Amino acid sequence: MRDSKLRHMIELCRRGHPYYRDAWRGVNLDAVQGIADLWRLPLTPKRLLMERPAEFRLDCPDLPVAERALWEVVHTTGSSGDPTPIYNTTYDYHGYLLLNRRVGEIAGIGERDVIANLFPLTAASMGAFMRSSTLAYACGAAVTAAMGGAPVGPFGVQKPMDEAVRVIERHRATVLWGVTSFVRRVLSRAAELGADIRSVRMCAVTGEASSAPLREDMRRLMREQGCAGSVVFDRYGSTESGGLAQCQEEGEWHNPAPELLYHEVVDPETGQPVSDGERGQLAITHLDRRGTVVLRYLVGDIISVKRDACPHCGRIGERLVGPVVRTKDLIKVKGMLINPAALLERLQRITALEEFQVVVEHANPDEPFPRDELVVRIAPGGGADPEATAAEVAAATQATIGVRPRVALEPRQAIYDAGRETKAVRFVDRRKH
Questions:
Q1: What is the pLDDT of residue 324?
Q2: CB 389 within 8 Å of CB 352
Q3: Rg (CA), the chain
Q4: Which of 184, 230, 248, 402 is the most buried (most CB within 10 A)?
Q5: Strands 297-306, 280-286: parallel, antiparallel or unpaired by DSSP?
Q6: Which long-range contacts (CB under 8 A, 24 or more apart) does 16-25 make?
Q7: What is d(CA 127, CA 370) in angstroms, rounded to the nearest whole number?
Q8: Furthest C-alpha separation in the chain
Q9: What is the Cα–Cα distance from 99 to 127, expressed in whole angstroms?
Q10: Phi and psi (nearest 5°) for 364?
């Protein structure tokens, strides 16, 4: 089935895909008869979609209306700060409903659930905000929204964080769906307000890397408030492809729609797929889309894949295996190559921290050869000793990456204003390279 769909997808791209018609010149497309031949196609770097999104939109005027009509445009982060549009036809939206129905089946979300959409309203249509209602429709669940975010225009529809707590309480929400750090903040705020959130049984989180200790802290907050459950479903995916689901907490991520998506792990230097279980860069291929279409698209994550039957739920189709490492995150600081993901994971385990951000900058940027400085901005939680917390952060940073930081104590909202920002930015490189 996948072989047939891939051949049809390639044929449509030959006819009406501006980018691939040019990129595939000199490629023997007739030799690509199925998934086993996918390696014959060149890889697609993520930056090209970010820079030239319109060229990745299929244009085949002879297709049926449902395969041409634009149903929606969702956005993902772009290369220059401007969001990148992802175009979905009616056909694509129906496919996404199928994918979300399977996500619900795998994760255990169904028609008796009430989903609280805790994603913010944003200046461009954020995929995650819009997908919360799609998930609810597909699973037969109800959905309500907290309507947070920075104001856009004079309309005044955005609401403060406390309203997110009240929405959960008022509608007896069972599933909290949002960016990991914000969902944790809402759980903490509910405890401060003494709100009744006992109906909550699951947090479905996405949008940023999170550590096992952070997720366990969310479970602690749920248990302490007498919630109906303490499940944390960590969704992995992208606006370009949709979400993958865990059949158990801290488990591997299932591809819920193998007839729509194919995942391979490749060596980015050669373009060749690596063996199952071996780590490499993740590339996704659309097998049945009509709007924005990508094939062998490098997401930018280091991961591995399994293709045997899942030992927990028995499903077949590929499963992605962490830990997820962002390739763009491997950088040099003071001449040392470091992985910020390891540092962020370590800092997330410090329970006294309410918010933090790691910044690399030049200590004296006006000098001809300025030295690097690593700054950790922190906001300790209530009751924590600021000086002791700063000392713990400094020691943990040096032990993890071998660089001694400067620790700056700052107000929580100066680091991450959950009411105005989509998600917390945990690592920033301000140096001029």
A1: 77
A2: yes
A3: 22
A4: 184
A5: antiparallel
A6: 16/58, 16/59, 16/60, 16/61, 17/56, 17/58, 17/59, 17/293, 18/54, 18/55, 18/56, 18/57, 18/59, 19/48, 19/52, 19/55, 19/56, 20/293, 20/295
A7: 40
A8: 67
A9: 15
A10: -130, 85
Residue 104 is inside which H or E element, if any? helix 90-107
Task: Determine contact, residues 57/278, Cβ cutoff 8 Å.
Answer: no
Tell me: the pLDDT tens digits for 148-199? 887 888 998 989 989 999 999 999 999 999 988 889 989 999 999 999 999 9
State how far the Cα of 297 lies from the Cα of 117, in Å rounded to an integer: 29
Could you please report the per-residue DSSP string of 256-272?
Answer: S-TTTEEEEEE-TTT-P
**Helix or strand or coil: residue 53?**
helix
pTM: 0.80
Residues 6+ apart with CB under 8 A from 424: 179, 181, 182, 208, 355, 357, 415, 416, 418
**What tokens does 175 get?**
């599933």
Preceding amide of 323 cis, omega within 30? yes
Q: Which amino acid makes up residue 341?
A: A
Residue that the structure tokens 């000199």 belong to: 26
- The secondary structure of 157-185 as a DSSP string is ----HHHHHHHHHHHT-SEEEEEHHHHHH
- Nearest 5 degrees, angle CA 282-CA 288-CA 289? 90
Characterize the bridge pairing of strands 202-206 and 175-179: parallel
CA 233/CA 221 separation, integer angstroms: 15
Residues of the chain with pLDDT under 70: 77-81, 209, 325-330, 332, 334-337, 367-369, 418-422, 432-433
Distance CA 165, CA 195 (A): 7
Give the pLDDT confidence of 187-208 residue by residue, as tens digits. 999 999 999 999 999 999 987 7
Identify any residues that bridge with 142 across adjacent strands, giving them in sequence order. 114
